[in-house]
Amino acid sequence: MKRRHWLGSVAAMAVPPRAGASQAGAVPLPEYEPRSMLRVKETRVERSRFPVIDIHTHLSWSSPLGKEVAPRMTARPEEILAVMDRKNIRTMVNLTGGYGKALEEVIAYWQKPHPGRFLVFTEPSWNRTPEPGYANFQADELARARQAGAHGLKILKTLGLYLREKVTSGPLVKIDDPRFDPMWEAAGGLKMPVAIHTSDPEAFFLPIDRFNERYEELHAHPDWSFHGKDFPSSRELHEARNRIVARHPRTRFLVLHVGVCEDLEYMSGLLDRYPNMWVEFGARIGELGRQPRTARRFFDRYQDRILFGTDAVPGGDDTPQQVFGERLYEIYYRFLETGDEYFDYAPAPVPPQGRWRISGLGLPEPVLEKVYYRNAERLLSLAPR
Ligand SMILES: [Zn+2]
Questions:
Q1: How far is the C-alpha of 350 from the C-alpha of 134, rounded, in Å?
Q2: Which of 199, 325, 328, 363 has an alpha carbon within 20 to 30 A of 335's alpha carbon?
Q3: How far is the CA of 18 from the centre of ligand 1 (A)?
């Protein structure tokens, strides 16, 4: 390089760094988007190897504390069906169907007009928990929901983290509070699986500081933190959930988000202990895919009790790892089916749940078939296809 050109390029480097950068040239964390220099295999999986039952989606919402309100549909069936057909999704299970009249509306909107394509779960009416006679009311309500067409019961992390003795005030209600026992028991009798979300990522229970591996996520959503105040530890919540699984062996519990996805050894212990416990991995391929060898062993060992789920929500961009769409499903298929290395777990410029990338599991066909739909058929007592 001629000296003139060399000086020119030094001058170019010396131009003031882009807006927002410090004088030393440091890039603010939110602006840092490193591009990987790895040249490794990239496989595009446009359609899943087998038809999919997505056991964890949100096609409608009702009030999280269980007040009976009109449901809010997150999309129209036609737009969802178009994506389903292109991505080989046979069925989507809408977990947040609410209860009572709202549930009937949700079933009439999604499930009835499209048999086999959409299934709806019901939710408890948490706002009635302080009332005397709640325990039996809720058990009977579940039977009514079954009659109305609900296929299972969904428990949001509301139980354990939000629901209080006077609904919004007082001490937190424990997950294994005995007043829910008739409901868990009824679910078993009605063959309605209980899809239960307990706690949250372990890092959400730690201080939001420079040591927190989900710092950016928590910094953007401080309300997702359960550090301090009167919140129990994450493990205490999981242990309370384990006690209800143990107390109701006839009831099948689908532990959402793989329970403690950061600790598959702990989860293996639970799956060994409780034959009525199943798991689903919605919004957790970021966790599984950063420990691909441990995760692969986990899938091999529990291949009969792991279900495909995405936690997909149509619209919105608050949680890129959950935005319903073709890109989301392609990432899941790539993760399950290929041995690709170091790719993004979410359709986003920066990995939203922590700055790392994932590797695929390369599951064999018999395991894929179970995870994609056979296990869901069994859990939901659907006629095998
Ligand atoms: Zn969810």
A1: 46
A2: 199
A3: 39
Distance (angstroms) between ligand 1 centre and the Cα of 90 equals 19
d(CA 47, CA 233): 40
- Determine the distance separating the centroid of ligand 1 and the alpha carbon of 341, expressed in angstroms: 27
Distance 57 CA to ligand 1 centre (A): 6
161 alpha carbon – ligand 1 mean position (Å): 15
Note the pTM of the prediction, 2 decimals.
0.93
- Return the closest-CA partner of residue 352 out of 322, 325, 329, 327: 322
Residues with CB under 5 A from ligand 1 (ion): 311
Domains, the chain, with CATH or none: 45-379 (3.20.20.140)
Quote the ligand 1 centre to 129 CA distance (angstroms): 22
Report CA(179)–ligand 1 centroid distance (Å).
Answer: 24
Question: How remote is the CA of residue 309 from the centroid of ligand 1, in Å?
Answer: 9
Q: Within 10 A of 265 (CB to CB), how many other CB atoms are there? A: 9
Angle of helix 264-273 versus helix 234-247 axis, rounded to 10: 20
